[in-house]
Amino acid sequence: MDKTVIVALQEFKMNFARREYKFFAFALPAVLLFLVFLLSLSGRQFSLAEFSLMQKSYYFFAFPSTIAMVFSLAIFLSANFMLQGIAKEKENKILEILLSSVSFNQLLLGKILGLAILGLIQFSTWIIAGTMIVWLLAPEIFARIFFSFIATQAILLYLLFFILGYLLYASLLAAIGVLTETRGEAQQIGSLLTVFALLPALSTMFITSDSTTMYAKAITIFPLTAPITAMIRIFLGTITLWEIILSLSLLLVSTAAIIFVTAKLFRAETLMYGKKFSLKSLIKFVFTG
Questions:
Q1: Residues of 252-278 as b/e, b for ≥16 C-beta within 10 angstroms?
Q2: CA angle 129-62-76, nearest 5°?
Q3: Which has the closest alpha carbon to 215: 203, 201, 223?
Q4: H/E stretch holding 78
């Protein structure tokens, strides 16, 4: 079996058993679905007319805000496992042992692949739970949206932005894990990325009121905020085709570049074992090897 696949399976098994993952991926959507099921027993259902009125309400931003928070957590939780794993392995001197049996690229890609599967499972459970909630509370809206071509297209776009968003944050956090000396230091620096991950969720009120502003367009295109902002605007139906193409293109290029640099850092970590990293030496290593 390919060593990349072995690393991916080990990473998947280890992190699938985490309590925080099981809570966010299974317990939380199941509890929410159960509560909605109890509410549906009362016979209360929302019609298309009521939904149209809700869209005009000042508080409608709560819907896309909830979507943004859910997928921000899904992306960052799986990506954060990468940071914790690498920082722990480096602190306990396990990283050097692993790199003696697998290549730099195999280790990095295996970890990313294993955690990507976890992220996709979490993405799927929330999509299924959300679909069932809409079906229980608003069957008329469900029939109108989920059986249309536009809905299928939206789900595919959600999946693309989710995968690229996860890969971007996972590779960034992997680089932070390699560059830092302890788990505490890695967590402190990695927590700064949560600002970018949560910014779209915190901005939903402004995006909902007017998603054509320069601010909304900027955070749709900027790679670190693009995945969640794009999801919000897809939900609102205000994102344009050129913004989707540009956003996905920048995400893809940024992710590929960061993965390439992170693989170089893995190699540098081994060859420079026992030495302090410096910006000059890192730049030289990344560009010259």
A1: eebbeebbebbbbbbbbbeeeeeeebe
A2: 60
A3: 203
A4: helix 62-91
Q: pTM of the predicted model, to two decimals?
A: 0.84
Question: What tens digit of pLDDT does each residue of 17-71 get?
Answer: 999 899 989 999 999 999 989 888 887 777 766 666 666 665 566 667 777 778 7
Domain of residue 259 covers 3-288
CA distance 90 to 111: 14
Both tokens of 226, joined, read 């693009």
What's the angle, vertex CA 116, arms to CA 247 and CA 286, rounded to 5? 70
The pLDDT tens digits for 109-134 are 899 899 889 988 988 898 888 888 88
**How many domains is the chain partitioned into structurally?**
1
SS3 assignment, position 139: helix
| pLDDT > 90: percent of the chain | 22
* 289 pLDDT more than 60: no
Average pLDDT, the chain: 81
Q: Which of 197, 163, 167 is nearest to 69 (CA)?
A: 197
Task: Give the number of other CB atoms < 10 A from CB of residue 218.
Answer: 12
By the 8 A CB rule, do 208 and 236 touch?
Answer: yes
